[in-house]
Write a structure and sequence with these properties.
heterodimer; A: alpha/beta; Rossmann fold; Immunoglobulin-like; eight-stranded mixed sheet; 26% helix; B: alpha/beta; 2 domains; six-stranded mixed sheet; two-stranded antiparallel ribbon; 25% strand; elongated; disordered N terminus
């Protein structure tokens, strides 16, 4: 097989015509010369016409050959057949190996997994290199992980390291890793022979980024997704002297079942309420009937038969009966398959015995709220209300409450406002009732408020009776009131005037045009709710109205929903505990599913100390041990991102088009690849030998043309004419 | 496509030299004349002159050169009786001596168009004229007579031999006005000239001999048959001999106007072979006829050549 490393020079093949054209031009530009011995010239021409034609033909042949050799030398042909290649030997080469490090590589086929095959293949490629060859190895995990970043020739050490390499079990950044490999090859451009090896499974997913960049064209700006550590995919980076070997290991039509998401209803689960878990599955392969089991605290609570793939719903529902209060670990499990890593899905079920609510304000201010929240079925309320004065706010752990109600607490200290804002950002519901204490300026430093009140309106008697208008009737807080048959009217004496709402803020209830009554604004993971009337009777008869009590209950239930936290998190390297696990302190110990302690570090962000947990990559339940708190409590449910569970296969014949590279060798197994490598690596670029040959031909041409010009001695010399004119013929 | 000829100092061109004076001074300068005045052109054979001179005559005369004995007879001068022979044999013999006469030299000059060729700025014709002038000067200085035939396809000019320097001067003056022209007919013309010279003389042919060599050889044989001493100066340009041209040309025959486009570099070897055969034919035939054949190339000095030639000729056994 002959290939050209610089095929662009083949375009200079037209140079082959140069000798002929020059000959034609020279022939057409003759000068007339009067001469005396034409008849001898005619005789000589008759004698030597055949010889001259032959000489001219040979000269033309040599010159055309010279041009052809020069063109071929610059095009750098490569003979890769064994027959010639073994004679020519091998050229030193640089090799970049990129291994797909996604968890889909954990796919098992019989005894050996695809990952083991991949690392063994990479090690074999390295072991097959000669002493002069150099290589680099990159692992495409969640990030590009260089195994050998720079080109090296430490074969044994790297092969051993590769065989012992563990699968990172993340997603695959194959495109950036490939770009990084090409970058490493470009660092030393002295070698003409380059190989790029991409080792992956038959999964389509890692090729998607290549495909996007290739489809967009090399000159188009790279898509945001494609831009990563190694840069967007650019096929032009694969130079002509670089040959790509793509090996797709594992099953060509892989099959997999994986639970990929859960949804728990209702959001607020108490010890008395059952809940429903909807599990979504991902199926790769043909339609399959399988079972899925649900475990709560490692006890199987249910098993469902599900039909997956082939256009079915890919969803199963489980009912969980009322559970005891606390945090329960739940696991969805599918039967063992070839890709075991994604068979389990973990989440936490937070069952509340009582909903902790903090009421902040004077006794009078909070009187109606406390009464409303303390009312329950049979005189027993599921809401645990704690009432404190504004002065006691600084010492409270706000993160332990699902809802904080502020009643006429202005003004607040800056530190307290910050603490409240952080509470909202981490998923709390903050409800603010105004009052006579404090002025408008006290609201100014509160960034998370839905609106900035401008003044307190004292409404005239004639305007005091107001009809409430449900501006967002679908919102969970007010959804139950629409059409309840209760006349939504209030007598309002005083009211905050809020003219301009802040970004994302919305009025849920208003008391007429331009008079908001209840304004909501999401902030971080939580919500801030502002009433424009006070929680006592001094501003309105709202606390006495029939919907005060249900609305207070709705608020608390809503807070439980938004503050209950995500039932699970995706695996990640770093997690802000301040955001997702506010109860964790510096002294707390977070343990991984294997029981290992997860390192917690602190960092100062915007003047505040924030805790981070690192290395939350293993899927499972992470438990928190509070200092002096006894047993570990489930704190986080971590699942690996399910993108890699989609094993939709890529066709090997599509890969060259996806990469947009001409010189590409596909293989689907070690033996096939090694044979292709063996066939490919024989031979070397013929550029240099051809250049030498061209030089030889040039010398030959020069000698031959000079020989033709000077051949034979002069007749004058052979005649040996004496000064007297006497001829002594040497020949005779 | 042929183009009009461009002058090239390395290639052949027609060049006519500006005359340096009239007559002999147009061809020889004083230094050359001085050097040539000391040498003599001798005939290898007996010649028939009309004056007593330094050359052997077919007649027995009064020279100091012994010829043979003859029986004394009535009318013989008694002073020639060989007394030594009489004392030995008692018979009267008289000693006979070689007669010595002056030399008549006929210079036959080719002025055909082919003589107009010349590379390096000198035409063969110019060279031939200078050679004729030098020889004429040598002849006249030795008190011998020199005559001239100028021919192309016919005899264009004829000058009877005389031995005065004035004669030479006038002869060369006439030659000055003649330029190469016409085609050549050397053989026929030489026959005519041979027929017109009755007394044995020294005939000097100066030509490029670019004619049918067999016929020219026959013409030279005609001279020899009439017992003339013949010298052939075969005047050639070095380019004609070696075809040492460095580029392709469209060659135009000077006499026929025939055109031929060839690359002389590729043709040189075969040309030299063909031309060598041509020269050899003249050389061997002349040798057989005892004609003194000399190949003269125009890239040498006329005066040096003439001196070298005459010196060699002087040393040759008669």
């Amino acid at each position: 097989m002959i290939s050209f490393l610089n095929p662009i020079f083949l375009a200079f093949g037209g140079a082959l015509l140069i000798p002929l054209v020059l000959h034609m031009i020279q022939s057409s530009r003759t000068v007339r010369l009067p001469f005396s011995t034409i008849r001898f010239l005619q005789l000589a021409a008759k004698r030597s016409s055949r010889r001259i034609k032959m000489e001219n033909f040979l000269l033309w042949l040599l010159r055309t050959l010279l041009m052809a050799l020069l063109t071929a030398a610059f095009a750098m042909p490569m003979i890769r057949t064994k027959d010639f290649g073994n004679l020519l030997g091998r050229a030193a080469r640089d090799v970049a190996i990129v291994i797909d490090g996604s968890y889909s590589m954990d796919y098992k086929m019989g005894r050996q997994g695809v990952w083991n095959q991949a690392t063994d293949l990479a090690a074999s490629i390295i072991e097959g290199l000669s002493e002069k060859d150099r290589f680099c190895v990159y692992l495409a995990g969640d990030q590009v992980m260089p195994i050998c970043e720079q080109l090296t020739n430490k074969k044994e050490e790297t092969a051993t390291r590769l065989r012992a390499l563990l699968l990172p079990k993340g997603s695959s950044q194959l495109c950036p890793a490939t770009m990084a490999g090409l970058g490493a090859l470009d660092q030393d451009g002295s070698r003409n022979e380059r190989e790029l090896h991409i080792i992956s499974d038959h999964q389509l997913l890692p090729w998607a980024k290549f495909n996007k960049a290739t489809a967009a064209g090399t000159n188009a700006p790279a898509s945001q997704e494609a831009v990563s550590e190694g840069g967007p995919w650019d096929p032009s980076k694969v130079k002509d002297n670089t040959t790509c070997f793509v090996t797709l290991l594992g099953a060509p039509e892989p099959e997999n079942v994986a639970p990929i998401d859960v949804d728990v209803e209702p959001k607020l689960i108490t010890t008395e309420t059952p809940c429903q878990v909807s599990v979504r599955f991902l199926r790769s392969g043909t339609q399959l009937e399988t079972t899925a089991a649900l475990f709560v605290d490692d006890k199987e609570l249910g098993r469902r038969s599900v039909t997956l793939g082939g256009g079915s719903a890919n969803e199963a529902k489980f009912m969980i009966p009322p559970q005891g209060g606390g945090v329960h670990t739940v696991r969805i499990e599918t039967p063992d398959d070839s890709l075991a890593v994604d068979n389990s899905f973990f989440f936490l079920l937070r069952v509340r015995e009582k909903l902790p609510v903090l009421c902040v304000g004077t006794k009078d201010s909070t009187l109606f709220l406390r009464a409303a929240l303390g009312t329950g079925v049979g005189g027993v309320s599921s809401i645990d209300v704690k009432s404190i004065t504004p002065e006691g706010l600084a010492g409270e752990m706000l993160g332990t409450y699902s809802c904080v109600l502020l009643c006429n607490v202005m003004p607040l200290a800056g530190q307290e406002i910050k603490s409240l804002e952080r509470y909202v950002a981490t998923g709390g519901l903050l409800v603010v009732f105004p009052g006579d204490a404090g002025g408008m300026a006290d609201y100014g430093s509160w960034a998370s408020l839905p609106a900035m009140p401008s003044e307190v309106l004292d409404l005239p008697m004639a305007e005091r009776k107001r009809l409430l208008s449900w501006e967002k009737p679908a919102h969970p807080i007010v959804s139950g009131f629409k059409g309840a048959g209760i006349a939504p009217s209030l007598v309002i004496k005083r009211q905050l005037k809020c003219e301009a709402l802040k970004e994302k803020a919305e009025t849920l209830v208003s008391t007429g045009a331009g008079y908001p009554f209840m304004i909501l604004r999401p902030s971080g993971r939580g919500v801030t709710l502002l009433f424009t009337v006070s929680a006592d009777r001094s501003w309105s008869d709202f606390p006495l109205s029939p919907y005060f009590l249900p609305m207070a209950h709705q608020l608390v239930q809503y807070s439980a929903g938004i503050g209950s936290g995500t039932p699970f998190l995706w695996a990640r390297d770093s997690l802000s505990l301040s955001e997702f696990l506010p109860e964790a302190t510096r002294e707390s110990v977070l343990k991984s599913p294997e029981g290992k302690s997860v390192s917690i570090r602190s960092a100062v962000v915007d003047g505040e100390t924030v805790s981070f947990a690192e290395g939350l990559t293993a899927p499972g339940i992470y438990r928190l041990n509070q200092p002096g708190g006894g047993n570990d409590k489930p704190a986080l449910a971590i699942n690996i991102p399910r993108g890699e569970s989609d094993l939709t296969p890529v066709k090997p014949e599509d890969v060259p088009a996806i990469l947009g590279v001409k010189t590409i060798q596909m293989a689907t197994g070690k033996e096939e690849l090694m044979k292709k490598i063996e066939d490919f690596r024989v031979g070397k670029t013929l550029g240099e030998p051809i250049l030498w040959l061209a030089l030889l031909v040039a010398i030959l041409e020069s000698f031959y043309s000079n020989f033709l010009m000077r051949k034979g001695s002069k007749l004058t010399d052979s005649l040996a004419i004496a000064p007297s004119g006497k001829v002594k013929d040497k020949d005779s | 496509m042929a183009k009009t000829p461009k002058p090239n100092k390395n290639d052949a061109v027609k060049v006519s030299k500006e005359p340096r004076g009239e007559g002999i001074k147009a061809f020889l300068n004083s230094e050359e004349m001085h050097k040539l005045s000391r040498i003599v052109l001798m005939s290898r054979y007996v010649v028939e002159g009309n004056l007593s001179g330094a050359h052997r005559s077919p007649l027995k005369g009064a020279s100091s050169e012994f010829a043979d004995h003859k029986a004394y007879g009535v009318g013989d001068d008694p002073k020639h009786i060989d007394w030594k022979v009489l004392s030995r044999t008692d018979r009267y013999y008289i000693k006979r001596y070689e007669d010595e006469t002056n030399l008549r030299v006929y210079i036959i000059l080719d002025r055909s168009n082919s003589m107009a060729y010349g590379s390096a700025g000198l035409r063969k014709y110019d060279f031939a004229c200078r050679l004729a002038a030098a020889l004429g000067y040598v002849v006249v200085k030795a008190r011998d007579s020199v005559g001239l035939f100028v021919y192309s396809d016919k005899i264009d000019m004829e000058v009877e031999p005389r031995n005065s320097i004035n004669h030479l001067h006038n002869m060369l003056k006439r030659l000055q006005g003649i330029e190469p022209a016409s085609t050549t007919n050397t053989a026929e013309t030489l026959h005519q000239i041979a027929a017109s010279i009755h007394k044995r003389a020294l005939v000097v042919v100066i030509s490029d001999l670019l004619d049918n060599e067999k016929e020219v050889n026959l013409a030279l044989a005609h001279f020899r048959k009439r017992l003339h001493d013949v010298i052939v100066f075969h005047v050639l340009d070095p380019v004609e001999v070696d075809l040492s041209l460095k580029q392709g040309f469209e060659f135009e025959d000077l006499e026929t106007g025939e055109l031929l486009t060839v690359d002389p570099r590729a043709l040189a070897a075969d040309y030299q072979k063909v031309f060598g055969e041509f020269l050899k034919q003249y050389r061997t035939t002349c040798e057989g006829m005892k004609v003194d054949y000399r190949l003269v190339q125009t890239d040498q000095s006329v005066e040096t050549y003439v001196r070298a030639y005459l010196e060699e000729r002087r040393r040759q056994p008669k």
